[in-house]
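so im writing up the methods section and need the Transcriptional regulator record in one place, dumping it here so i stop losing it
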Amino acid sequence: MNTDRHAQTDNVDLVKKMNSTAVYRLIDQQGPISRIQLAELSHLAPASITRIIRQLLERGLIKEVEQQASTGGRRAISIVTKNSQLHTLAVRVGRHDATITLFNMNGKSLNEKYYTLGGCTQEALEETLFRIINLFIENHRQKRSELIAIAVSLPGLVDTHRGIVRYMPHISVDNWLLADKLWTRFNVASFIGNNVRSFALAEHYFGASRDCKDSILVRLHCGISAGIVVNSQVFLGNNGNVSEIGHIQIDPIGERCYCGNFGCLETVTSNAAIENRVRHLLTQGYTSKLTVDNCHINAICKAASGNDLLAREIIENVGRYLGKAIAIMTNLFNPQRIVIAGEITKAQKVLLPAIQSCINTQVLQDFRKNLPVVISTLDHHSAICAFALAKRSMLNGVLLQKLLAS
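--- predicted struct ---
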């Protein structure tokens, strides 16, 4: 009997948590919104709405605002989220650097600093990472109100649900329990995720795909990766990772990839691969405005945009390879929008037509209809990708319930 009673209590508590999360999400996404509208959209009784609103108000997560009455008389009271006093420390970890930014829950950057990372072991990276986070917190203690979360995005294979880093491309890690260690060290809710998957989420919340439920982000940098958003959720595999587009084999007799395979997409479309290809052709006597000493990806993009034949041919070739991979993903997921990010987008006038030509010929007609290919509106070096993890945790109730229970 006691077991049944406990089960019933647990079920009631779960329903209450689900209801408060649903109401908060409606306020965040559609505010200013009235109590009547909340009841209609959530299908909850007015009494339940009143209880949840009171709970959220007492915790300082929402606030009431007066709306201008259209016909005079008493102004209606609506609800909006209260984000200015709630802060998240977002950390984007790259292969050799890190960006730390303090955000309010509106996604506004309040303070930001870049750091160089050293060391080639998990222990060394953890020591450096925790040291710079602590330093940033101490230096900006007077400029923040309530720190509610620390979110970290990093390259590699990340089990975001368990907070474990399984693999990183430049250092050896062994099931790094990063989220738990952050919680133990800083005593604040902590979240981790893969850089590109988190970046796709940030584009969905704040960027080029914010009006789409289904989208694909493809980022070209040191490597090439993709993030897939399906029904407003990042699509993840059974261990939290999926869409390693860079390891689609496009040339069986191509160069060996660090993954052990040959001819991966990454071996021809990463920044380093593009730079090496240009450098090789220059040494073979091909003419260009570029030189062997000046063939950085930014210079190549500038030359391609300026109709340098060699640079233009290289970028078009990258676009065709990339377009083939994107066409495969489009046939699989039927997205509403394709977003491209990375330094190569500086040559978008050359790159995008090459990608689009592959979509036009290799994607099902119904899938390619009204499918725009656009450039990311966010800086892919920004820590906004990490902040998106905290934003998601508020909207899905994980962080929200922690705050309500505190």
